[in-house]
TrEMBL record:
Name of the protein in its database record: AbrB family transcriptional regulator
InterPro entries the record matches: AbrB_dup, AbrB_fam
UniProt region (Disordered), positions on chain: 1-21
Organism this protein belongs to: Rhabdonatronobacter sediminivivens
Bias kind Basic and acidic residues: ranges: 7-21
Lineage: Bacteria, Pseudomonadati, Pseudomonadota, Alphaproteobacteria, Rhodobacterales
Amino acid sequence: MAGCRRAVTDERPAPPAEAERDPPLAQALLRLLPLLLAAAGAGWVFERLGVPLPWMIGPLVLTAVLSVTGLIRPHVPNRIRAGGQIVVACQVGLAFSPEALAQMVALGPYLVGTTLLTLASVGATAVIMARLTGQGLAQWFLGMVPTSPVEAATIALKSGIAPMQVVLAQSLRLAAVVIVVPVAIYTIEGWPTGNGRAGMDLAAAFDPLDVVVLAALGLGSAGLMRLTRLSNPNFLGPLAVTAVLAGLGLGVTPFPDLVFALAQIVLGTWLGATFKPDFLRSGVRDLISTLGATLLLLALCSLAAAGLAHLAGHNWREFVLGAAPGGVAEMALTAKYLGQDVALIAAFHVTRIFILMPNIPWIVALIHRYETRRHGAPPH
């Protein structure tokens, strides 16, 4: 994470994902169509190979390779990613049955405890890596804490921290969690036979009206949630509305598997596009240390979650997925693919969002001030 040595001035660059003004949505989709088709092909190949979460991991790997090598320069607007988040949120919300809600209330203290353990794991990883590399503690903390690369880059700029290295760490963290967690669980539990579809039937018939109704609910609730200025409104809004409908026992038809697969392709492509050629220019040492920190964080979170699951007498897989430092949409998808309690895993991550997101800026500012007073200027 040592890349940018120059002091941050008032003429600060925009965060990487916001450096370009988004074109109109229809134009952006037209530009991305060849990439999305190629990403869908990668998802199909990964499905044939039996790779877990193929419709997201396939596009992620393909887009990351094309982007990092400079073969293409994909710009995937956040509005397109929002569509994938809304689809996943609606599917997850419909899993919030009265029985699932009762279970979450009973496990409430463990949801909060898992969030605090994840925060402690982030802090421990940041301390260890700062001592090993001689780089800033605030920079390592911001690179590892579960949030989006855009939000982390914005906080980094305000705090005078090199944003590119933070984005590198955040992108590696998200990608590693999506890939490593399901593969690790498969390795422990035994690799399943078959083609890896996990019960998905992309050719199944569906009623287009059902898709339109649920999409309208998702889009409308996401728009209303944006008015609250809460983090991740495109997930939390549809999640809240569909969870209430499911809890009341109202019959809302989920999206068909085809739409669900398309949402995963969009999310995987967006995540892969966060990897830029600049990442290779940051140096082998930086890449290795960042990847090592990501794996260390994942190991600490998993061990802490497994211990907490043992105390609770609960399924360790669900606690590990709940504590994994990944995005809520991505981890909900992982839980669904692995056949775990999707609503419970979503509850873990939503709890973390509400506890951590409002507090990340002041925690980073506090660490940054501590480093400045102790060393005169924190290392970058």
